[in-house]
Write a structure and sequence with these properties.
Length: about 525
């Protein structure tokens, strides 16, 4: 029998690989560009292209598309499923290309207006953001097609290649930082890489190359599942109409989500130089455990939850969700505390000055406060999409943006970049809580968390004590360098080891989740 745990493990392993590659890339970027205006411009330029990808064929389409494809595959067979897939692909390509052209033409006001992405930058930096954004739109078009390929493969319960694709993106982006961007060549032992000296433009060219690899790696897998592209587009087709009806609320939902991140950079552009980049690194460090736990489980669960709803297996649906919640809580609460207490020495790999490292440290900690909420949200939203209910997540996403805006306007001037990260954590955690509250009104079988909560709290307390004692006996800050980083990692491993025996029941639950 196939298990959700197997799919989750595959996704988690390759997400972990992607995060390692992504970290190496980000470390090289940080060491090359520091907390500079140019790097702030590069990070800000990603916002609108990321918004287009997320709206059209990233999170928006995947959650709307997978349940419909899953149902078509079960009811009407492979031929009709791939026919629907082709038509939606054609539609998305045309929409993405059209919007990319419009954004390229309107890039300058999108950057510089008061409600734009970087109104606080000086005119020179705003011009750089504009040019980089236009180049990024090429990558967006390739990412959009790759996102569709992921939806098609995941609807067939195939997770290996979609999980590998982001690592191929990182390979392309690494070429950008190792070869295209630097003016001085990188040397690895006897190997000296060429250095083209393109500066910050080398980064964006690497992103384009990575997005092409992201798409190309998935084409053989699509062919394996007998996909053949058809040059058709019929908006009256029943399946296309259903995807559009389900997708439109999801588009607005993702718009509100992405609006949070655009607003983050808008607020940060008015702060000290490096604030935009500090948000990027803060989010990056939080995303490692969130991707390995929340995103992996949510991605593996969506096809399963969709099948259970399609078959009318409501009790099994509730049982699967209850087990998943217990697993997420048991993993994310200790992870957030362990990372927040021990992460500082690891940040030295970025090679920032003391003030820059301190800024990133508190931004990371601010985001880690939302680790539990973000991970639960990955699953909470999918429970509604599995039921083909896109309206509820839309309403809660709108409320989340409103809450974030209020908190961000208050906290950013007071706490700087960490205040923006804290506003993000509080707003998205509140959304996860609201979604589960609404879910339990419809499915009143609330999972019993008493035993899990007690054991997780006890384990987290032990992990915190272990971390503090280790830092007192072997202070990594005094050791410094690579030894300090190794002490930090060993401390985190020891702290995790104190938690593990107490959450073994949840680990067993994860291994026994069936699809």
């Amino acid at each position: 029998m196939k298990h959700i745990a197997r799919s989750t493990l595959i996704i988690a392993v390759f997400f972990g690989l992607e995060k390692i590659l992504g970290f190496v890339r980000q470390i090289l970027i940080a060491r090359t560009f520091q907390l500079s205006p140019e790097l702030d411009a590069f990070n800000a330029a990603n916002n609108i292209p990321d918004l287009l990808f997320a709206l059209i064929s990233g999170g928006a389409l995947a959650m709307a598309f997978i349940p419909v494809l899953t149902e078509y595959r079960e009811d009407q067979g492979e031929e009709e499923t791939w026919n629907l897939f082709s038509q939606v692909t054609n539609l998305v390509f045309l929409i993405t290309a059209g919007l990319s052209i419009l954004v390229a033409l309107a890039a300058k006001p999108l950057v510089s207006l008061g409600v734009g992405i970087a109104p606080g930058f000086n005119p020179e930096m705003q011009a750089l953001v504009t040019v980089l954004m236009r180049w990024n739109l090429i990558a967006t078009l390739l990412f959009s097609l790759g996102g569709l390929a992921i939806a098609g493969l995941q609807s067939h319960q195939h997770f290996l290649v979609p999980a590998l694709a982001p690592s191929l993106y990182d390979v392309g982006a690494m070429i950008g930082i190792l070869i295209l961007a630097p003016s001085e060549p990188y040397t690895f032992g006897p190997i000296t890489l060429p250095a083209l000296g393109l500066g910050i433009y080398g980064l964006v060219y690497g992103v384009i190359l990575g997005s092409a690899l992201f798409l190309l790696i998935q084409l053989p897998a699509l062919r394996h599942f007998k996909f053949r592209w058809r040059p058709r587009l019929n908006l009256q087709h029943q399946g296309v109409s259903r995807v559009i009806r389900l997708m439109l609320p999801r588009v607005l939902t993702v718009f509100f989500i992405q609006l949070v991140f655009i607003t983050q950079d808008n607020l940060a552009s008015r702060l000290a130089t490096g604030s935009v980049t500090a948000l990027v690194y803060g989010w990056l460090f939080m995303q490692v455990p969130e991707s390995l736990i929340g995103t992996s489980l949510g991605t593996a669960l969506l096809p399963t939850l969709s099948e259970q709803i399609s078959r009318g297996e409501s009790e099994k649906f509730e049982l699967t969700l209850g087990k998943t919640i217990r697993v997420i809580l048991s993993l994310t609460i200790p992870a957030a505390v362990i990372l927040a207490v021990n992460i500082n020495p690891v940040l030295s790999v970025l090679n920032f000055d003391q003030a820059g490292q301190e800024l990133v440290l508190w931004t990371v900690r601010a985001y880690l406060i939302g680790l539990v909420g973000h991970s639960l949200l990955e699953v909470a939203a999918r429970t509604f999409y599995a039921q083909k209910d896109a309206r509820t997540p839309l309403i809660t996403a709108g409320l989340t943006f409103g809450l974030f805006l209020i908190l961000g306007l208050f906290l950013a001037p007071w706490l700087g970049a960490p205040g923006i990260g804290l506003a993000n954590s509080l707003a998205f955690t509140a959304e996860a809580g609201l979604l589960f509250a609404l879910y339990y009104r419809k499915f009143p079988r609330i999972p019993r968390l008493g035993s899990t909560t007690l054991r997780v709290c006890a384990g987290t307390g032990l992990a915190l004590l272990t971390s503090l004692l280790s830092q007192r006996w072997f202070p990594p800050a005094q050791v410094g360098g690579l030894q300090g980083i190794m002490i930090s990692f060993l401390t985190m491993a020891a702290a995790a080891g104190t938690v593990l025996p107490l959450i073994l029941p949840e680990i067993r639950t994860l291994l026994q989740l069936e699809r």
